[in-house]
Structures are given as structure tokens and as C-alpha cells.
TrEMBL record:
Residues 62-158 form the GST N-terminal domain. This is Glutathione-dependent reductase. The record marks 253, 296 as: Lowers pKa of active site Cys. Pfam families: GST_C_2, GST_N_2. InterPro entries: Glutathione-S-Trfase_C_sf, Glutathione_S-Trfase, Glutathione_S-Trfase_N, GST_Omega-like_C, GST_Omega/GSH, Thioredoxin-like_sf. It comes from Litorivita pollutaquae. CDD domains: GST_C_Omega_like. SUPFAM superfamilies: GST C-terminal domain-like, Thioredoxin-like. GO terms for cellular component: cytoplasm. The active site is at residues 63, 195.
Amino acid sequence: MGLLQDGVWKDQWYDTKDTGGSFERSAASFRNWITADGSAGPSGAGGFAGASGRYHLYVSLACPWAHRTLIFRTLKNLEDHISISVVHPDMLADGWTFDQNFDGATGDTLFGLQFLREIYLKTDPKLSGRVTVPVLWDKERNTIVSNESSEIIRMFNSAFDGITGNTDDYWPKELRDEIETINARIYDTVNNGVYKAGFATSQEAYDAAIGPLFDSLDWIDGLLGARRYLTGDRITEADWRLFTTLVRFDQVYHTHFKCNLRQITDYPHLWPYLRALYQWEGVAKTVAADHFIRHYYYSHDMINPNRIIPISPNPDFMAPHGRG
Ligand SMILES: N[C@@H](CCC(=O)N[C@@H](CS)C(=O)NCC(=O)O)C(=O)O
């Protein structure tokens, strides 16, 4: 695992020395938006119009952020319009690679390259920064549109509606304020909270992450006792953003990231809710436990130096959920 410095790959782990042992996620570097008519979005440059066959998505099936984009590609019927490449689950000295010796790792189906960093370097041979998934690539302008999953899902939510005819809206105007409030807490304490606990290199940093994580899970469990989805009767992006963390929790975060106060299967409302989302049409096929179990335990050798993959529980995501 590493990063690019002036176009040169350097193999190094996250630096937590200057932050008292706390992991801080870097901001994504490509922030353009695909819009229906190609006008500029909330950030970046314009010129990226929704079009069939123009865009390509690079994902890891292990990564919760990339997983969001895959779910939206499915929910919004974009599979025939946006092609994908799936990286190998191991993220070692060369970062994400296009090795194909793992079921479901497709290689780079666009250029046949070996490393994900080579896709980043196509935008600028002197690029500096982390090489992360997901990456949304524009085949027409030969550049990265975006590598920020929270923005890619909003593009998928609306920019291709004229092409697919699918107008399902997971970011409805009237719920935006509430979605943002819920997203902010869940991002900080749950989605990124598990990483803050897992990547902490001091007891203080771990303690600062683990309390808020389980406080938030209790809060969400309470909410879901009174409503079907996070904002009420209607499923929104807030639910899908939470889902990709919940579905990895018992098999990975509980043990590997030391989030072991409780499992999701212990919660009276969260667990049936997780099953309901898993059983949503098309979603189960986006969940690849073999990729995420292998990725985390095998790639993070500073957490698990002997790369022993523990026996994991096997929650029955297909059991009836009883949530209507
Ligand atoms: N802000 C990004 C974060 C993506 C991210 O951190 N992806 C991880 C995989 S789960 C990654 O590629 N990490 C490689 C690295 O940090 O070097 C997003 O949400 O799209």
C-alpha cells in the first residue's frame, strides 16, 4: 500500500505520527460531476454529460466506498451503460492491482494495465496523492471524472435518467437536509468510525473512535424501531451508505478492526433492517464476502502481520426480515 509522489510510487502505510495515533482519511482529488446535460456540477469542471457507454467504473468488491457506487449502478439500471473493472482484493506493496487470480477480479477490461495507479497516471504523469477506489473514468476525454463515492452515487442517481428511464430518487429534495444530518453522523462515527478504530495506533485514538461508533449503532437501532428506513418510509442514499458498512461488520470490522462490543446480529432492529436491504432487488449480487474477508485480513499487515484469516460468522442475510 502506498501513494504517488510526483508520479513515482512510494510504498508506505498511513502516517498517524502527527495526529496522536489517529487515522485521518485524505480528501478525494478528482471532483468533477457527470450531469444530464454536461453542465458543471457542484465542483470541478463541466463537459461530462450522461451518455451510454462513455464511462467506466473501477471498483474493489472489498471496499465499502466503491460498493456504494456498484449498488447505485444496479439500482439505477446502469449496468448496460457503465462498464466496470474489479481489482484484486489484495492491496499490498503495489496498491490495488489488476491481477486476476481471484474469482471476480476482472483485470483492467479497458486498457489491460497492471496497476490501478497507472489509471491515475494517465491523467497526469506527475500526479501526487493516494490511489483509491472507486474511480469513475471518462473514455471520451480519457480522464478521471471523480474518485469520490459520495458524489458518484449522486451522479448515478440522476444524470442518466433520460437514458435509462429509471427515475427512482434516492436524494429527494424534501429529505435532503435530514439525509445530510444523518450522513454526517454516520460517516464520521460508523462508515469511517470503524476505520478510525481499526487504524488507530494509540489507545487514546481507539477509545475516541469506539465509543461514538457503538453510540451511533444504538441510536440507529432506536430509529429503526420506529421507522422503516433512516429518514422514514422512503429508502434514500443514507440507507445505502450505511448498508455497505453494516454488511461487512460481523465478518470483518468486529474482529479485524476491534469493533467487538457487539455484532450487528445482536441488534433487534438493525439486523432485520440489514437483511431487508440485502434482499432488495439486485443488491445481494453486489456483496462479495470473499473479497472483503480476504482484503482486510490479508492486506493490512500492520494490523494482522501473519495474515491469518480467522474463522468468521456466516450471518443468514436471506432469512426473512419481517420489515414489510
Ligand atoms: N473518499 C473516497 C475514499 C475511498 C477509499 O479510501 N478507498 C480505499 C479502499 S476501501 C482505498 O482505495 N484506499 C487506498 C489508499 O488509501 O491508499 C471515497 O469515498 O470514494
